[in-house]
Amino acid sequence: MSQADSTLEGHATGLSVGPAFSIPTKKLAMWLFIIADTMTFAACLVAYGFLRNGSADWPRPFHSITNVALMTFILLTSSLTMLMGLRAARVQDKAGAFRWTMITASLGILFALLHVREWLGLIHEGMTLFKNPWGNGLFGASFFSITGLHLCHVTGGVIALLAVGVRYRGGRYNADDIEVLGLYWHFVDLVWMFVVPLVYLLNLAH
Amino acid sequence: MTTTEAGKSAGMGKDLVVYLCLLALAGVQFAMAFQNIDTSQMLVRMLAVAIVEAGLAVMFFMHLWSEKRGFVLFVLVFTIFVLLAMQYGWTDSTRMVVGAPFAK
Predict the structure, then answer these.
(1) Is A178 domain-assigned?
(2) ipTM of predicted assembly, 2 dp
(3) Band (A84; pLDDT cuts 50, 70, 90)
(4) CATH number at residue A193
């Protein structure tokens, strides 16, 4: 081997140092997506807070916390079932992992249905994007934007859960894929922890 | 019980504890909504609880705690910096309430 060859080989070895932070590429990509999405939700919530703080007649249309409490319970529980799915996948329990993933998807669907029911109730009371019977018209725009964005994430998550669950059972995906999807699902849950107090609880009618 | 099953149930116990903590914290937030306090005070308290909840979820449910230290720092420092940078406009929103003119 010439000196040039050994130098080139040394270069190649130096360049292939493996994935950044020594974590799998898919997982790193999901974390980067989560960081970016955190900024999106944070920007929405800050804009919402800005409008609320700058408005003297901000509406407080929520009379009951039952629905939102139930939605919170369902979403938190779905995070636990997601973890159970991951644990089952890690010990090669294919049937268990598939079952828990499908339970998580079902809880996500239930959450989405409750959310839509709540939306329809508010629309029935006269709330639209730019007007409502209670006060500042921008409440509807900010409420539907933030909760709608979150609902889009839940819907996307449910579709991903169904797809990954089925492909995992078919042997095309493995436990790492369940873990990456789990990161996304927990993130959706995490965002809800901020949406509930800011958008619902602070606007509870007293 | 096999070693794998024992490890699985031990890990699940921790997950269950974190889950119960999150439920309890969510309950605290709901209870706060019925306190007879100023809205800004309520906001600060609820946000504090939400940050604790988010911390638990990120560290234990998303397993950030068990990742490499460099990665944990990357995620936390980058995210917290941008979140803090977003807070620059609050004085202007207050100015809208009190009717003070905007700076030229």
Answers:
(1) yes
(2) 0.86
(3) very high
(4) 1.20.120.80
